[in-house]
Amino acid sequence: MMKAKAPLEGFEGNVVKIEYHSDLKEVQSDGQLARLLSDSCQHAPFDRLAWWQMLERHCGLSPLMAIARDADRAAILPLAGTSGHLSALANWYTFRFRPVISGEPAPLTALARDLARKAHRVTLSGIPDEDGSASLLQSAFRTSGWLVLRETCDTNHILPVAGRSYDEYIASRPGKLRTTLKRKTGKVETQVLTHFDEAVWAAYEDIYAESWKPEEGSPDFLRAFARAEGDAGRLRLGVARAGGEAIAAQMWTVEGGTAFIHKLAHREAARPLSPGSVLTAALFRHVIDVDKVDLVDFGTGDDPYKRDWMEQVRPRYRLDMFRPVTPRNWPVLAMAGMRRLAAIAKRG
């Protein structure tokens, strides 16, 4: 564990301690941090220590957990990277990235100030702002002397259920989708499991290999995550079959009133049966009528098919933070300035 040279004076006269952990076992052995990053306190997988441990173990990411805390409050920024350029401890499996905060006001400004000793640039992508995370980070880094560039980098499609039943929800979907479901549902058998099943998971991997999807980035990560979520009772593993053959599979998880849609795939040869749509409908029915979720989150990406199922879109932001007096940053800042001027000229 690496610590700041000295404690920093924080809000209301409290002394804020700054820590950096490259060994996640140190975080796990710290009672306060372990509780804050456990599933008893965090109700989305992307905010938990177990998520970052799996990213390190299966995806080759090297963590640097930046932590500021006093007796009552804490701010945790899970980072990765070397050579003075840090980024989010996240990858394509992460729906959104944000600091984990306990107590108010959060000691993020003290953490951002101390990070100047560790990095000349910090790039964080996939940050939400419906909870204020992007604005909070932007303010903390700017207050601490960083130059902050903010831009929209992705979209997040969601469905607020708003108390509807599945039948009420599906009645509001586009006519083309409802017609497809009416014509195809009887030709495909669906099953939704709430536990991890080796045979179904093997079928999912086989289906994925025959789908339109690119090669899976880390099958070991996904399997480990699915198994852990199954053990916790949060997994919703769907499979569609025709003639006894598995032709579509999806992985969802449910917690904290939200259903997260992580992975979906179908065999290209089975496309005429629309197994993906039929299976998606079965999972929507389960999470709405059985799990009683308040929100369905379709992750990132603006794929056209998501608009058939979801009703709202939330932006995801990238914050690129620079120490302005560091010469290594000047070429990047110059290019950013030129792009901004070109955009202004184009609008004019």
Short description:
With 348 residues, this protein is of the alpha+beta class. The chain contains twelve helices and 15 strands. A hairpin with a 4-residue loop joins strand 4 and strand 5.
SSE topology:
Elements lengths: L1 E2 L4 E2 L5 E7 L2 H6 L1 H6 L12 H11 L3 E7 L4 E7 L4 E4 L11 E3 L5 H8 L5 E7 L5 H11 L3 E14 L5 H5 L4 H10 L4 E5 L4 H12 L9 H13 L3 E8 L2 E11 L2 E9 L8 H16 L4 E6 L5 H4 L2 E11 L7 H18 L1
Parallel strand pairs: 6-8, 13-14
Antiparallel strand pairs: 1-3, 2-3, 3-4, 4-5, 5-6, 5-7, 8-15, 9-14, 9-15, 10-11, 11-12, 12-13
Helix pairs in contact: 3-9, 4-5, 7-10
Q: Using only CA atoms, what is the Rg?
A: 22 Å
* Alpha-beta content class: alpha+beta
How would a textbook summarize the main sheet?
Answer: 15 strands, mixed
CATH class of the largest domain: Alpha Beta
**How many DSSP H or I helices?**
12
Number of domains: 2
Considering DSSP H and I runs of 4 or more, what fraction of the residues is helical? 25-40%
Low-confidence stretches: none
Shape: globular
Question: What assembly state would you assign to the polypeptide chains in this entry?
Answer: single chain
Strand content: 25-35%
How would you spell out the order of helices and strands?
A: EEEHHHEEEEHEHEHHEHHEEEHEHEH
Identify the CATH architecture of the largest domain: 3-Layer(aba) Sandwich
N-to-C terminal Cα separation, in Å? 52 Å
Average pLDDT for all residues: 93
